[in-house]
Fold this protein.
Amino acid sequence: MKKSLGPKPLALPLPVWVIGVYDPSGRPNAMTASWAGMCCSKPPCLSVSIRAATYTHGCIMASKAFTVSVPSEAHAAQTDYFGAVSGRDKDKFAETGLTPVRAERVNAPYVGEFPVAIECRVVHVAELGLHTQFVGEIMDVKVEAGTLSEAGTLDIQAVRPIIYCPGTRTYHGLGVLLGRAGAMAAR
Amino acid sequence: MKKSLGPKPLALPLPVWVIGVYDPSGRPNAMTASWAGMCCSKPPCLSVSIRAATYTHGCIMASKAFTVSVPSEAHAAQTDYFGAVSGRDKDKFAETGLTPVRAERVNAPYVGEFPVAIECRVVHVAELGLHTQFVGEIMDVKVEAGTLSEAGTLDIQAVRPIIYCPGTRTYHGLGVLLGRAGAMAAR
């Protein structure tokens, strides 16, 4: 018998991504977001939802571009900082000592030290309420060489990304390999 | 120095959710999806992207409703099955032995044995390419009593959800607690 918690934003597990933008003066900024995920295979698109009150929101509206930098567990404190303060008040790259790297395919910076950078151009904007959802077409995925599997694709066990739980507001690491999609269903 | 992999759908980490629907005849069906995530806090909304070719797609278009059932690690094989076959060909609930439970707030079933069920009504539909993105307003979240934290909110460490890596097509468990949002950034 399940207990009803009411209409609350408690879906899980969620990713922890850092969204990179240039502001209208060309200064790099970034913020942490977890209301985000993949949303199309062809063309490859992901979506990120951001409140209109944030500095990043206005930057994306102006540039129509952003990056997703995927942090590793080791970057958890810096990632938390990117979510805790506003780019209006602080130069977050300078404060954390992390490096803004100019993306090649879109007008936005990514975090050089994080293992994965995804360059996106905005193709769809939906005003959903408190959050605006930006759908970004993935123009390139850049990864550290050490994060590739033997088959040459991105291996989550090498990336060691951070996972978010919205109710408890906690960050978590990745656990054990459970199996391969399409190969577990035999009963 | 990062290596470019080109424009590919490789963002991670991703959730593993089972999307529940009634078909036009009232038969319960469900499919596994990972192109999904939270997308708004007020009203609370999540989004799920589904290919038009799937049986579930037509069911959501007709009913304007779906559920998200969040499986635990222990349900990995059944969850993989829900993603491997079509509801056109099989009664997936009957085949897995799992129980379709009628949602209270929307016209859709959820998986009774999974620890978390989220009832959604469709409020926005975006045709993005191969995938259609459905934004669902969360009408209720139902959870097993054993998944609540001391503060009474949903605790990911009790849910033990499954995490997906698209490149390697692998399922993973949850790892260790890294810290609390807003409490790690002090430097």
Remarks:
- Residues 55-63 of chain A form the longest helix (9 residues).
- Chain A has a mean pLDDT of 96.
- Residues 157 and 175 of chain A are 9 Å apart (CA to CA).
